[in-house]
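Dear colleague,

As promised, here are the two records you asked about, laid out in our usual form so they can be pasted straight into your sheet.

NAME FIELD: protein one
SEQUENCE, THEN STRUCTURE:
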Amino acid sequence: MLTYEPGTSVAHRLDPRTKLAVQIGFALAAFSHTTPRGLSLLTVLTGVVLAAATLSPFDAVREIRYALPFLFAGPLLSAVVLGSPWIVPTEAIGPTLASYRALLVLLVSVAYVRTTPVRESRAAIQRVVPGRPGRLLGVGVALVFRFLPVLIADLSRARSALRARLGTERRLIDRMRIVTTTGVRRAFGRADRLEMALRARCFAWNPTLPALKLSHWDVPSLVLATGLVCWTFV
C-alpha cells in the first residue's frame, strides 16, 4: 500500500523539505534530459534513492502498478500506423523514453511517500509556501496522502468481492462498470464521513505541526538537489 512506513533508513532521517527539493530537482532533470544517456544516469540515481529508503525496486514498481498500463500504452499506440506496414517500431522510441522518464519520477515519489509522515509533508509545504495558499496546499496534500490508499483498498475489496461471487464470468465491460460504480459510491461516502469528522474535531487551518530541523544528513541531499537543478539548465 502506497503509504508511510516507519523505519530507520537514511531517507527516514532526512528533513521532508530536503526530500521535496530532491524530488523537484530530479523531476526537472528528468524532463530536461530525455536522451538515453541522461536517463541512464537518472536510473542509477533512482537506484540510490530507493537504496537510501531501503525500498526494493520490485516493491516500488508494485506500488505504482495501476499506472503501468498507461505507461505501456503510449509506446504501443505510437508504433501503430494506419496503412502498411501498420507497425513502425521507430515511432515508439520517443514515447518509450518519455514513459520511462515518468516511471523514474514515480519511483522516486514512492520513496518519498514511504519514508515521510503525512504531518511532516504538510509542515514542509506550509513552511515553504507562506500564508493561506500554503495552508490550503498543505491540507490538500495531507488529505490526498491519507485518502488515496483508502480508495485503492476499496477498489481491491470490490474486485475481491466480485471474484468471490463468480463475477469473473461476466463480460469485461460489466466487471469494469461494477467495480467503478462501487469505487465511486464508496469514495463519495468516505468524503461525506471525512467532512463530518473534520467538523466534529473542530478542524483548523493553523494546527500545531511537528518541528522541522535540518541535520548533517541533509547536507549531501541538498547538494544533490542543487546539482540536479543546475544540470537541468546545462
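NAME FIELD: protein two
SEQUENCE, THEN STRUCTURE:
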Amino acid sequence: MKKYIGLFLLTSILFSACKKDIASLNNDPKNPVLVPSYALFTNAERTLASTMTSSNVNLNIFRLVEQQWQETTYTDESNYDITTRPIPDNLWNAMYRDVLYNLERAKTLIPTDVTGVDVQKNELATADILQVYTYYYLLTTFGNIPYTDALDIKKTFPRFDDAQTVYNSLLTRLDADIAALKTGASGFGAADVIYGGDITAWKKFAATLKLKMGITMVDVDNAKAKSVIESAIATGVFTSNSDNAKFTFVASPPNTNPIWVDLVQSARQDFVGNSTIMDLLQPLNPNGTPKYPADPRLPYFFTVNTDGQYAGANPGESATFSLFSKPSGPLLVKGSIGSITNPDFPATLLDYAETEFNLAEAASRGYAVAGTVAGHYNAGVTASVTDWGATAGAAATYLLQPNVAFATAAGSNNLQKIAVQKYLALYNRGWDAWIETRRLDYPVLLAPETAQTAFPVRFTYPVNEQNVNQVNYDKAAAAIGGDKVTTKLFFDKH
C-alpha cells in the first residue's frame, strides 16, 4: 500500500511540475506582459532626447533648415524637401508612439506600482511635464494635432484639436504639475536620467518651460503671455548652467549620442558647417580678413578644414567634405562638455542661456522682470559660451566687440539683437532655433537658390494621417488654412 501511495504522490508531483513548466513557456522574458512605470519613463526620456538631438535626415533636419549645417552630396533637405523622405511621419511617430504613449502608460501604472502618496504625485507630475514639453513641439511643428483622442487606443481615428486651445490646456496642466510637486519627497530616482529624481529641479524645469511657452505666444495673446511669464518667474526659473536639463548618453551602444551614431559610427561624410552660421561666428571683411575676433564657441561648434581654416558651405549647395568645417570640436578646455560627435555627448532639452534670452525679451516688452534687457542679454551670451567650455573671461571679451555688445550689435531693435545671439546659443538645438526664426523673423535666412519651396514655417501632416485618418485630416487641413509648408501656425504672427 505504501508503495502505491508513494507512486501516486510521485506522479502527482511530476504532473504538477510539468503543468507549471508548460504554463511558464507562455512568458516571454524579453517582452513582459507588465512593464514597470519607471522603465517606460526612462525609455520615453531617452527617445525624446534622441529625437530632439538626432541628425538623421529621415527624422530631424532642423539644423539644415536653420542653416547651421549643410549637406555635402544629397542636398534635398537643405533645399526644404521634407516629403521625399517620410520625415513628418517619422517625427510624428517618435513623439506620439514612443514618447507620449510611453509616458501615458507610465502614468496609469504609477498608482499601483509605486508606494507613498507624495512619491506617486511627484512621478505623475514629472511624467506629465514631459508630455507638455513633447506636445509643445508637435503644436509648433504641425499646428492642429490630435490631443483629446490622441492616446486612447480605442480611438483609432483621432480628431485634431485646435492648436491654440491645446496650447492653453498645456499651460493649465503645467500649473497643476507645479502645484502637485512635493519637494520633500522623491521621484523616479535613477530611472530619471535628466535630473535623477530631483523634484526641486523638475519644479524649476516646469517653470522655465512655462516661461518659454509664454514667450512663444507673445504675438498671439500678449495679455495672457505676460501673465504666464510673470507667474513662471515668481515660481522660479533657471538661474545657472547647473540647472540645465541634459540627458547624458553613454559611451557604448545602444544608448549613445545619436550624432555620434549618425556621423562617426556610420563613418559618413554628409554634413559640414553652413556659411550662414559661420559668418556670424567669424565675421570677415570683403577681402577675407577677420573683421572681429571669432566667437569663442567656434572651435566647440566646428573643426577647421584641411587648410586649417573655418569655412562654411553655401546654403543648399553640394560641398566637398574636405574643404569645409565639420560639425565637431575637440575637448579644448577642462570642464568642457566636449565634442558633439562624442558618443556620450549630452542632449540639451532646456537651458539657462535660452532662459536669459527669454527674460531679456520679456524685459524688453515691459513685463515685470527684475534686471535690464542688456543684463539678461549679457547673461545669456555668457551662459552659452561657458556651457560649451570657453571661459567667463572669453565671454566678457566677446561681449565688448561692437558686433556683440548690446548697445551696438546688429539689429534695428532689441528683439533682433536678442534673436541673433539666441540663434547662436541654440546651435545643436535646431528645432528650437526653427521656432525662434519663425517667431522673430530674425536673423534673416536667405533661401537657397535651388530651394524646392519657400522657407517652411510648418511641416505637412504625415502621409499615414492623410491616408488612414482622412476625414479628420481634411478637417484639420481646412481649419489651419491648408496642409502646406507655407501655412503659418497660430503663434507665428510676424
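A couple of things worth noting about protein two: Confidence is low (pLDDT under 50) at residues 1-20, 330-336. The domain at 37-248+454-480 is CATH 1.25.40.390 (Serine Threonine Protein Phosphatase 5, Tetratricopeptide repeat).

Best,
R.
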